[in-house]
Design a protein that fits this description.
Blueprint lengths: L1 H9 L13 H10 L5 E5 L2 H13 L3 E5 L5 E4 L5 H13 L11 E5 L3 H12 L20 H16 L3 E4 L3 E2 L2 E2 L2 E4 L6 H4 L6 E7 L2 H8 L7 E5 L3 H10 L4 E4 L19 E2 L4 H7 L19
Parallel strand pairs: 1-2, 3-4, 3-10, 4-9, 8-9, 10-11
Antiparallel strand pairs: 2-12, 5-8, 6-7
Helix pairs in contact: 4-5
Length: 299
């Protein structure tokens, strides 16, 4: 709403941009069925995005979808542990994990796993939770109370299946305490379900082969991080990890106005940003012009 007001004050003509707060039931079907609307771009849940994609296909309508994620952070054997901890830490706790690109699955080589978990846990313990207008606060409230209850279910399931809850796992009002879940396995909901909160799931990998296999073992493919000093290893990860964006020795949260932002699998369709948005949101037309009488036809 504030963005709309800024553009209005800047002189954008009325009707060029319309911001209409309402439920998806009220407006969603109208957008999808109305022939005057030639394209839909959507940012939100995979569940709603799937519905939009199905409707768009039925109506032969273009769409770009920026959906959910369960982005992996691969910490390989040669990684500087302190740097890896700081990178993974920022990647999951920025905006209390309410970012589709959040590095919520931290996959660590078994030789450095215990050391990483120990240092990561100690760092989580010093996070300040509270009023986001306080400059010292890192973890603010989640968007609504029911998200805390959703995360509780993930934590309970992980605990029942053998995970260790090293920090957090509790909430108060809309505040979810920064949570570290170690020894996560693929059969736990938290491994593959987007929590959209301050919850780090740490997974042990035997080697690079298993780390890549674990990274790909979800329906999502939005962003990924690889922390290593080995060029051959990160080139292999860049080729084999199923993701729309991959970052070497940097957090999964990166985004710039000119880059091709988007994911694969259930993380979405298409790319947005810079000239990629122009290509997605316009139609390419082929036009030929010839001189009168130049064509010689066979019949």
């Amino acid at each position: 709403m504030v963005f709309g007001e800024i553009l209005q004050e800047a002189g954008l003509p009325a009707g060029v941009l319309n911001i209409v707060p309402c439920s998806k039931e009220v407006l969603g079907e109208t957008f999808q069925e109305d022939k005057r609307i030639s394209m839909i771009t959507f940012t939100g849940s995979t569940q709603v995005g799937r519905h939009i994609a199905q409707s768009a296909a039925k109506n032969m309508k273009k769409c770009t979808l920026e959906l959910g994620g369960k982005s992996p952070v691969l910490v390989l054997e040669d990684a500087d542990i302190n740097y890896a901890v700081n990178t993974a830490f920022f990647g999951i706790f920025m905006h209390q994990g309410q970012i589709c690109m959040a590095g919520s699955r931290i996959i660590v080589h078994e030789k450095i796993y215990d050391d990483f978990v120990s240092k990561f846990t100690e760092k989580v313990k010093i996070l300040q939770v509270g009023d986001p207008t306080d400059a010292r606060t890192i973890i603010g409230p989640l968007i609504e109370r029911k998200q805390c209850e959703f995360i509780d279910d993930l934590i309970l399931d992980a605990k029942k299946k053998g995970a260790r809850i090293l920090t957090g796992g509790t909430s108060k009002n809309n505040f979810y305490m920064p949570t570290t879940v170690a020894d996560v396995t693929t059969d736990m909901k938290i491994f593959s379900t987007e929590a959209f909160g301050p919850v780090a799931a740490i997974i042990k990998a035997r080697d690079l082969d298993e780390a890549i296999e674990l990274a790909n073992s979800t329906d999502y493919g939005l962003s990924a991080t690889v922390i290593t000093q080995n060029v051959a290893d990160y080139l292999r990860c860049a080729e084999e990890i199923e993701t729309g964006m991959l970052h070497v020795n940097g957090p999964s949260l990166q985004d710039e106005a000119h880059i091709p932002f988007g994911g694969v699998k259930m993380s979405g369709l298409g790319r947005e940003g810079g000239h990629f948005s122009i290509e997605e949101m316009t139609e390419l037309k082929w036009i030929t012009v010839e001189g009168m009488g130049n064509h010689k036809y066979p019949f």
